[in-house]
Amino acid sequence: MWPEPVLDLLATGGDRPVFEDGDRVVTAARMHTMIRRVTTGLRDHGFGPGRGIALRLGVNAEAFATTIAAFAAGTRVCGIPPGLAPGQLEYLLDRDDAVLIDDATAADLLKYPPGPVSAAGRGPDVARIIYTSGSTGHPKGCAQTYAAMSASWAPHPGRWPPVIAELATRLDRYLVFGSLNSQVMLEYGILALTAGGTLVAAHPPDFPGAFVRHRATASVITVGKLHQLVRAQRTDPADLSSLKALMVSGSPLRPARLREALDVLGPIVFHGYGQTETGMISMTFPGERPETVGRPPSVTDLRINDQELYVRTPAQASFYWQDPRESAEVFVDGWVRTRDLATLDDDGYLHLHGRARDVIIVQATLVHAGPIERRLATDPAVAEAYVVGRPDDETGEAVHAFVVPATGATPDPARLRALVEATLGASSVPRTVTVIDQVPPAPSGKPDKAALAVRDLPGSPPAEPGRPPS
C-alpha cells in the first residue's frame, strides 16, 4: 500500500543522497528517520485513517518528509494550491475538515523520537485531495484513494511505459520548486528517487539560472516558462549542458513552439498530456510526432464519444470531494470525462483539438471562465462580461476579459482586476480588460465568444489556426 515503496527505498538507501538544499545534503537514511519522527508526531496528535491534513509547506527536505509521513499515517492529505484568496482557503479547510500544517508545525513534529513506520492507509480511503479551480469559483478537489495511489507507475520500474523508462535515465538531479504537494512535482520526484536520482531544491526557481547553479539534469516546466527559456537561450545563452529532460505540463503546447524548443534546447523536451483527475494520459519522446501528445501506455484506456475524450487510468481520482453533482458529470461508469476534444490516428497517437468546456489553463492552474464573468458583472459599471483564454508566452494561456459598460458608466480595468483577485485568486485575474460596445452574435444569436477570442489584443498572440480557442 502507498507509500510503502518509498519507505522501503529510503530504509535501504543508506548514505545515498536523496535531497539537496544548498549546502545541505540529506541521505536516504536521514530522510527515513525524519519521516519516522513526523509519523510519530502525527499519531501522537491523533492523526490516522479518516483524518484530514492540509499541507502548506516550503520546498525543503522537511516538507518532503512531512508529506510522505502524512501518507504513511493513513491520513487524507491535501496540498494548499498557491494563489488562493483568503475566502477560498477558509472554504477549503472547512470543506475538507482538515487541520493546517505549515513549516512551523512540521518543525515541531520533527522533534518527536523516530518510531516504527509502515503504510497505515486503507485501500478505499481517500489518500489525497488535489484541488483545482472550480466552476463555482471555489477550489474543486479530486479525490484519489490509497488503492489508486498504490497503482501508480512512479515507484515501480516494472510498470514504467517505454517513454517513462527513457525519462528515468535522465533524472540524476531533479530540480524541485513551487510546491512538493503538486501532483506532477511529487510524481516525478518519486520517479527520480526510484531511478537513483536526487531531488534538488531550487532557491530561487529562476530559469535558466537555477539549472546552471544546481547542475540540474531535469525538471518540470510550464509552457510559459518554456517559452521564456527558449527566448533567453536565443538572446543570451546559458550553459545548459547538464540538462537532459524537461517535462512540459499544464497547458497545450503548440506544435510550432515545441519544434522551436527542440531546435534551441535539443532533444530534451518530453511533451505529454494529463489531467488532475487522471494523472498522465500520454507522453511523447523528444521530437516524436510533435503534432500529437503521444501514445497512451498499455494500462490506459481511451474512448471517444462525439469527439469528446473519455479516459480510464489505474491511478485516477474517484470523485470530487463533497461535490456529487460535478462528480456525476465527470466520473462516469469508471471513466473520466476529460471534456477535451480529441482523435486517435491509425498509429495510436492522440491528437487534441480544443475543449468542450469553458476553461483556461494559467501556469498549470485550471481557471473557469464562468466565475470570473459573474464576478466582473457585479461591478455597477459593467452590464455584461465575457472571458476567453488565449495562448500566452509567459503563462501558457492567459485570461482576457471583455466588458460592455452599463449605461452612462465607464468600467475601470484596474478595479475590475482587483475585484477578481480578491475573491477568485491571482490565477483568475484577466491579463487584459477590453471595453466593447456589444458582444458579436453567433449564428444562433448567442454571444460569440469565439469571435472575441481571435480579436487582436495587446501582448497576446493570435489563436492557433485550426484549434478552437478556450
Can you offer a commentary on this structure?
The chain has 15 helices and 24 strands. It is an alpha/beta fold. The protein folds into two domains: 4-354, ANL, N-terminal domain (Rossmann fold, 3-Layer(aba) Sandwich), CATH 3.40.50.12780; 359-453, GMP Synthetase, Chain A, domain 3, CATH 3.30.300.30. The strands form five sheets. It has an eight-stranded mixed beta sheet with strand order 2-1-9-8-10-11-12-13, sandwiched between helices. It has a six-stranded mixed beta sheet with strand order 5-3-4-6-7-16, sandwiched between helices. Helix 8 links the parallel strand 8 (173-176) and strand 9. Helix 1 (4-11) crosses helix 2, helix 10 (223-235) packs across helix 11 (255-265) and helix 13 (369-376) packs across helix 14. The radius of gyration is 22 Å and the shape is globular. The two termini are 39 Å apart. It holds the Pfam family AMP-binding_C. Residues 459-470 have a biased composition (Pro residues). Residues 437-470 are annotated as: Disordered. Residues 14-100, 121-315 form the AMP-dependent synthetase/ligase domain.
